[in-house]
Amino acid sequence: MSRLIGRREFLREGLLAATAVSPASTLLLRATDWIRLDSGFTPQKIIVIGAGLAGLSAAYELTEAGHDVTVLEARPRPGGRVYTLREPFSDGLHAEAGAARIPDNHALTLRYVRLFGLTLDPFLPSALAQAYHLGGHRVQVLPGGDVDLTAVPLVLTPAERKLGLSGLWEQYVTPVLPEIGDPTAPGWPPESLRKFDRVTFAGFLQAQGASPAATALLELPFYKPHEDRLSALWWLRDAVLAPGERRRHKIRGGNDLLPRAFAAQLAGRIRYGAAATGIAHDGHEVRVAYTQVGMRQSASGDFLVCAIPFSVLRTLDISPTLTPAKQRAISELPYDSVSRVYLQFRRRYWEQTGHNGFAVTDLPDEIWHGTFDQPGPRAILTSYMFGPQAQRVAAMGADQQVAFMIDHLEHIFPGVRDHIELGTSISWDQEPWSRGAYAIFEPSQMFSLLPHVARPEGRIHFAGEHTSAWHGWMQGALESGNRVAREIQAAIARREP
């Protein structure tokens, strides 16, 4: 099956070779094991802030265990950064604004999909070719193929040109993966990995001997090397957590059907339009102040699940203040920028030239045709941009964003202006209840911040993709919700006579 060249696709390619030597490959089921909570404890009153997948899964499991759970959600919908756009598109078309892909080795995500009777479809089509726009040159790659680097006008070394894209990953990244160990193990990362946390991924690749051009290819579709500000250890951890992945899925009808299914089970326990403004806690209870339709409200409980991003949590008043290490993690944890621009077309004209509508470019961005299996002649192409490129596009006006993307796509699938009908966009930096797309770690932060991100503080427990090893994935949010539910059960057990 053909694959995008995105960084995580590179991770998958490299991990197929590394699985046999990676200790994490035998430990993933431990981290994602779905253990029903024991309902034999005294019911507690539990407040959950945030109805994303982390808060929903924690609330669901705690409710199943017999606890009295109240969920406060600032938005008028469940799901948080799992968000399917259905407007302003025509003919019932939809596109993903947030989490879009479910790898087939994300066991916990798949278990919840099955629990709620949802149907999975392939994320990528099995027919036609993908396009790669590199160095001003468009390359067509048939299913199962690799980019012919001899056709790409980049200054690669002769050896790199022979390797191909997946070969570059195996040459420069795969050899270090056995050192990374199990990122889900207590106390990870060990001191021996600090060397990887001192540099960016671009710096790591260059130290491994990659040429500037090879480094730029391996950074796609996320960053240009000079704009990469992420710890190399952050990326290497992601690589070690990817063994066994063969394909990716999406939920038929839209990925928001998963949070909707949770919300249907929780029903009256969720209070929408409830924006938390402050948290007060002591040895006996936790109190949350929030506003709803302009009115000040409050809710109290025995425990609190804080399932909102730190980028939002840092705007809340917390009394008394948390430990200095926790406060620093909340204040300093970075979030990556993501913008997506969507163009709707009257017909899928690119198929006439043998393309499936998916592409990777050195803008940098990914192009998705998520409507390839939706009915009717119309289609939506999505440009998925990260980091500084996402920020540059977010700073444009709405009309300018669409015009920019029309010009960009014209180089990849000529004919855009003859078939386009409408366009829209989203920037997660500008979403007030997210303030960023997903947590990232800059150099040295895997050691300075990571140990404190998920740690509970008294009766306050923290969930969200940022508290899991699976940053940016639905799997991470769900895993963190399950972890917090088990933490609270353990805390109750310690207090029971």
At a glance:
This protein is an alpha/beta fold and 497 residues long.
Approximate helicity band: 25-40%
- The counted number of beta strands is 21
The name of the CATH superfamily of the domain at 33-80 and 254-333 and 440-495 reads: FAD/NAD(P)-binding domain
Main sheet characteristics: 7 strands, mixed
Q: Rg from C-alpha positions?
A: 23 Å
Level-1 CATH class name of the domain at 33-80 and 254-333 and 440-495: Alpha Beta
Spatial sequence of strands, sheet with the most strands: 8-7-17-18-19-16-20
CATH topology of the domain at 33-80 and 254-333 and 440-495: FAD/NAD(P)-binding domain
Q: Show unreliable segments.
A: 1-33
Alpha-carbon distance between the termini? 57 Å
Descriptive account of the structure:
The protein is an alpha/beta fold. Among the domains are: 7-28 and 155-240, no CATH class; 33-80 and 254-333 and 440-495, 3-Layer(bba) Sandwich (FAD/NAD(P)-binding domain), CATH 3.50.50.60. It is 33% helix and 21% strand. It is built from 19 helices and 21 strands. It has helices at 7-18, 28-32, 53-64, 107-115, 158-172, 177-180, 194-197, 201-207, 212-219, 232-240, 257-266, 310-313, 324-332, 387-394, 398-412, 416-419, 445-448, 450-453, 474-495; strands at 45-49, 68-73, 84-85, 95-96, 102-103, 120-122, 129-134, 137-141, 248-251, 270-272, 275-281, 286-292, 295-301, 303-306, 317-319, 338-345, 355-361, 365-368, 379-386, 420-427, 460-462. Strands 8-7-17-18-19-16-20 form a 7-stranded mixed β-sheet. Strand 12 (286-292) and strand 13 form a beta hairpin. The radius of gyration is 23 Å and the shape is globular. The termini are far apart. The model is unreliable at 1-33 (pLDDT under 50).
